[in-house]
């Protein structure tokens, strides 16, 4: 990072109808919010002269989250509570910032640094039992990989790398739900809907919410983003 700039990390939610914003739309919305907040943001070099901001890994469209992040480069070191208050006043409630603090440059780019995620997943309208779901996921995991279509391109993921595990499998009023832990690798990351599709279990829809993101250290411990 350029000397004389300060890396402010902001944690925010993504809820309600704004869960259906695509990642590019989200970036443009956050850019407008930062400008409305009148924060002293740094502008990057190059022809486009864009705001210097990095985002955590893109959510699937329609997924909500309680723990999204962006790193904003500032030219002045504002008190984090002041910056947070200004952002909250300039941001729609469905993208509300909830925390802000400064972080060091040594962490690297945010999208690559956050390598672990936790998801709450619900199969709405499913009649499967927790035992059925656990068994199907175990069968998929034992195959070692998942191949699926991303647009028109076929992708294959090594499940030993990207699937950490599932737990808290339970029945709900709407169907069956579980908690999923995943890992992002250079080869890609596992989206909850891809895992559900691979199980072959039928449901009306898949409801997804990201509830945690961390950096996984070399010793396997998880480092909090803030």
Output the keywords:
6 helices, alpha+beta, 36% strand, 2 domains, elongated, Alpha-Beta Plaits, 226 residues, single chain
Helices, strands, pairings?
Layout: E1 6-14, H1 23-37, E2 53-55, E3 64-74, H2 80-90, E4 97-102, H3 110-113, E5 116-124, H4 130-143, E6 145-150, E7 153-158, H5 159-162, E8 163-171, E9 175-183, H6 192-199, E10 205-216, E11 222-223
Descriptive notes:
Strands 1, 2, 3, 4, 5, 8, 9, 10 and 11 form a nine-stranded mixed beta sheet that branches. Strands 6-7 form a two-stranded antiparallel ribbon. It folds into two domains: 102 residues, Alpha-Beta Plaits, CATH 3.30.70.580; 110 residues, Alpha-Beta Plaits. The chain is 25% helix and 36% strand. It has 226 residues and is an alpha+beta fold. The protein is elongated and about 55 Å long. A hairpin with an 8-residue loop joins strand 2 and strand 3. The mean pLDDT is 94. It is built from six helices and eleven strands.
